[in-house]
Here is the input.
Amino acid sequence: MKRLKSLLISWEALLVILLLISVVIGSVLSPYFLSGFNFNALTSNTMEIAIMALPMTLIIIAGEIDLSVGSVLGLSSVVLGLLWETGHPMWLAIGVALLVGLIAGCLNGILVTKLALPSLVITIGTLALYRGLAFVVLGDQAVSDFPTSFTNLGFGSIPGTEIPWSFLIFAILVAIFGVVLHVSRWGRQIYAMGNNKEAARFSGINVSRVKLTLFMLSGLIAALAGVIFTARLSSARPDNALGFELYVVTVVLLGGVNIFGGRGSLLGVVLAIFIVAILQNVLGLKNISGDIQSLAIGLLLILSVLGPNVARRIQDVIARRRLVAGSSQQT
Amino acid sequence: MTTTSQDVERARQRGQVSQARLFRLVNRVRELGLLVVLLLIILFVGIQAPRFLSIDNFEQILLSIAILVIVAVGETLVILTRNVDLSVGSMVGVTAFVTAYFFKQLPDVNLLLGILLGCALGLVLGMINGLVVSFGRVPAIVATLGTLYAYRGLVFVFAANTTTQVNASDVPSSYLALATTQIFGIPALILIAAVIAIIVGYYLHASPTGRQLYAIGSNPEAASMIGIRRDWLVFATFAASGLLCGLAGVLWGARFATVDATDATGLELQVIAAVVVGGVNIFGGSGTILGAVLGAIVLGTLQNALNILNISQFWLQAIYGAAILVAVILDAFITRWLQRTILTRRKKA
Here is the structure.
């Protein structure tokens, strides 16, 4: 247990160092990097990914995964756009979009818990299904005539600062998820499920209900991200946020969450969010296109799992050598 | 009445035999069920639009899925070992673009050289996947989600430094002919896919290595314990998947003639849908190449039917998603039914 804890602390320490290094590199590479305006651009660009990473952290710690988040975002964005275009009030459009996300998440959760199917496969299926439905709803159209009062949610900042509104939403959600995961009984249950599902069930945890709730939460938050995304780009298109699951899973795993569940912290994930945000921002400032940026993110995803694995293997080899050396000295 | 130990032994053997038969039966049922679904689709669409039933249209369907089948064969190998390869679309994209560009730059070069280049490139990309999964101990889903985007990024880097698009007029006609040649009146593309499916299908069914892949997927730890070199074989399936994607990429370039950096994006969902619909168990250990091919034919027929019935192609992706879900749910129910049947039979015996 002690070793486990020190490992976690050192991973987060590593992330802090990485974050500092990326800030230094960013400010060396571009004089605009440390400006307030750039802070605004940097944060608002990643807030959708950032808020989706919060429920994903809980889901992966619980031993599951939700690959459909990008598609849920796209579907809710399209529903929002369609309702607005057909003359419904904005509050209703947002409400229905959030409801769609909740239902989508609920379907994921029911398939995973009631039919005891692995979330990996189910959410690959719903990744295709929800994205497909987004295309069915809107075809190759786009809705873009949103009122400024709405787009302000995406563009605007808190008056007198360079802090975007979406950052405020993120900060509130981090506080809530932090308390849920690290303080509440519910959080302990999530860790227990991730460590040993059977043991968790025998100790009286309603594993199915917790998982169903997590998937519904993930869908709801993805829909909220869809609302923010639509406001920020002032555009509802069926291919909105295509491939965002890569970014979300990357920040969670880079944040030190174990892909097999049971381990990780929200602090690590928040640090990883900012590292990835800065990486994207610096690449953007250097005029590197989004498609090439995803090359870097893809490599980062693999390295964040491969790195610790290789380190552990090297440690094992060293330990074994020491053991061999020790025993040969004794004889 | 007394039962001798001989009676018990005989009953037990009978139980085991019927178990094996049951497993085989379920596989049959799965493939037969797919055939019935296929026939129903054909009947339903055929009544509404008779031209759907022409030989020409049937050839069109097979032609449209030939490349998909080649990729699906590789994916089947990977999924049988309880892994998954999400990077197939990007590997096809990389090799299609690089091969087409190669022929654009060197139009007079030997055709075989370009084909080999594409295959080798695919093999290398697949080997990287295999290394990361087998020896880096990164779960396949994470590793290949990473390379899905990394390889796609590579095409964009390559395109940014060379050309944004290779047009049909840029490449030698001998390359394009790869996709249009007919042998005995059958398009070469269909023949290539069929030959690959038959060879790999036979190899899986009959060779020791093929059976070992099933063993790994059924129970990875047990497979290691009985001396199967699990890491190497899993590595090999990823390499094979890459190689087949390489070949598919070469053919993709020839078939579609105009290639850019976004080609074959999202192909992985079609491939996984075909394989899973075809009854290859997503948890590994069971399924056949024949099933995967049937799955691809069902999906291809559906796509063709949408076209003929004038239904928007936008439905396509939703259908793929629904097909994956239905297949996985159905498989879960069949497996559960199978387990219950075996259990009750055991009790009777």
